[in-house]
Amino acid sequence: MKEKNFPFKTLFIVLMSLMGLLFFVISAIFVFASINDPFFPPYAYLVFGIMLLIVIGLLSVISTFIYKDAPKHNMEPWMWMCIAVFVPNLLGLLIYLIIRSDNKTVKVKCITCGNNVKEEYNICPYCGNSLDYKCRECGTKISPNWILCPKCGTKTEQDVK
Ligand SMILES: [Zn+2]
Ligand SMILES: [Zn+2]
Questions:
Q1: What digits encode the pLDDT tens for the residues 71-115?
Q2: What's the CA-to-centroid distance between 134 and ligand 1, angstroms?
Q3: Residues, Cβ < 5 Å to ion ligand 1
Q4: Which residues are within 5 Å of ligand 2 (an ion), measured at CB?
Q5: Domain containing residue 111
Q6: Residues 98 and 110 occupy one common structural domain
Q7: Taking every annotated instance into account, which residue ranges of this chain make up the domain DZANK-type (predicted)?
């Protein structure tokens, strides 16, 4: 995994602040509109407030979800939080979910170099060592993360790093 250097975390915070500012400006416009217009219905505040709460609630749920979910799929959480929250009409979230389902293959650690690799790989793409682990007793294909063979219970030898 190449470490991404782009500060998505900062970008996310900046975008969030900008959006907060935008909401503030919209609220201010609303207040001024209601002052200047005596026929401005008071329930407009309520509607606007509820809408605002729904949007903020939804965005926090999405952000929290991605923050916890993205690392499990080897995805950069802050970058995806930016995309899911700020691409309009939840399109970003949709893109995230599509790419995520693509990435859902279980990741295992290569015992030779320690990189995360897909479980279905037979050879580690980082160090070229074999990932084709088999139980030494019964020959069942086992994951390098497992401590014992699920079929016969023999302990794997992989505890030696
Ligand atoms: Zn490796
Ligand atoms: Zn076995």
A1: 877 788 899 988 888 888 788 899 888 888 766 566 777 878 888
A2: 17
A3: 110, 112-113, 124, 126-127
A4: 135, 137-138, 140, 149, 151-152, 154
A5: 106-161
A6: no
A7: 110-153
Q: For position 113, what pLDDT does the model report?
A: 87
Same domain, 32 and 75: yes
Residue 145, classified by CB atoms within 10 Å of its CB into exposed (0-12), middle (13-18) or buried (19+), is middle
Work out the mean pLDDT of the chain and round it to a whole number: 81
Length of the chain: 161
Same domain, yes or no: 121 and 90: no
Cα torsion at 63, 67, 69, 70 (round to 10°)? Answer: 110
Distance 151 CA to ligand 2 centre (A): 5
Write down the pLDDT at residue 159.
45
**Relative to the alpha carbon of 155, which ligand is closest?**
2
Is 147 part of any domain?
A: yes
Other Cβ atoms less than 10 A from the Cβ of 77: the count is: 19
Q: Note whether 81 and 123 are same-domain residues.
A: no
Asked whether residue 2 is domain-assigned, the answer is no
State the amino acid at position 15 in one-letter form. L
